[in-house]
Specification:
alpha/beta; Rossmann fold; 28% helix; binds S-adenosylmethionine
Length: 225
């Protein structure tokens, strides 16, 4: 697995992202990385979970900069919910890249900066208690290779690169794997609302909703098992 060259960029809302010059692809929306993560994954993912849950199990496909994990941790802490977060990332960031990101400063006034560093520094494949109420495991693995426990998650963040770059991650085989890992009523949320992705999700058995997207995107996808 070769890791492509990456460059840190600042997006429209002042938050940072990574850019792959070889693919001309950003990790987040250029209009605002923070705004996009909050809109897609928190507002239309985390915030849709039933409020009576004591513990939430989340899988992220494509941990990347850790922004979704950081925001989920912040949300869970505010709601006094325990969080079990599993993340897949075949190309983890280097220490230097993590140190340059301004994510921790932009979330709750830097309160989770230590937690953010600990997530990135955690040993691959080993459960780490980031706080007493936040257990986190980062696998240096692809979705294709990962063995996912059936009916384990309430929520999956599908945040791989766009289907034109990674078609296999958006096809029926990969999506069915995610479907099986979700509990009944569990949610897959993603920024993509491409026709081929919608068709594959429906073929897996998901029920789809398409809320409006963040700046620059007409709609996104919330898929319910
Ligand atoms: C759009 S970025 C994710 C952004 C990330 N969620 C964040 O908050 O920064 C896509 C991520 O998927 C990862 N990725 C690439 N191939 C993958 C695969 N086969 N399975 C899982 N993740 C993959 C990339 O390395 C990259 O970090």
């Amino acid at each position: 697995m070769t890791t492509l060259k990456r460059v840190i960029k600042t997006t429209g809302d002042g938050s940072q992202t990574l850019y792959l010059p070889d693919w001309k692809e950003h990790y987040h929306s250029v209009h605002g990385a923070l705004a996009e993560s909050l809109h897609v994954f928190i507002q239309h993912g985390f915030d849709r979970l039933p409020r009576n849950l004591k513990k939430v199990h989340i899988l992220e496909v494509g941990f990347g900069t850790g922004l979704n994990a950081l925001l989920s941790m912040d949300r869970a802490a505010r709601q006094d919910v325990r969080l079990c977060y599993h993340a897949l990332e075949p190309h983890p960031l280097s220490e230097e890249e993590v140190a340059q990101l301004n994510h921790p400063q932009l979330v709750s006034g830097g309160k989770h900066a230590g937690a953010f560093q600990r997530m990135h520094a955690s040993t691959f494949g080993t459960k780490q208690m980031i706080t007493s109420r936040f257990e986190f495991t980062l696998w240096k693995q692809t979705l294709e290779a990962a063995g996912l426990e059936p009916e384990f998650y309430e929520l999956v963040y599908h945040d791989a690169f766009a289907p034109q770059f990674q078609p296999d991650l958006w096809g029926e085989i990969a999506l069915k794997k995610i479907y099986r890992s979700l509990k009944s009523g569990g949610i897959l949320v993603t920024y993509s609302a491409r026709g081929s992705v919608k068709r594959a999700l429906r073929a897996c058995g998901f029920n789809l909703e398409h809320p409006p997207g963040p700046a620059g995107k007409r709609e996104i996808t919330v898929a319910v098992r």
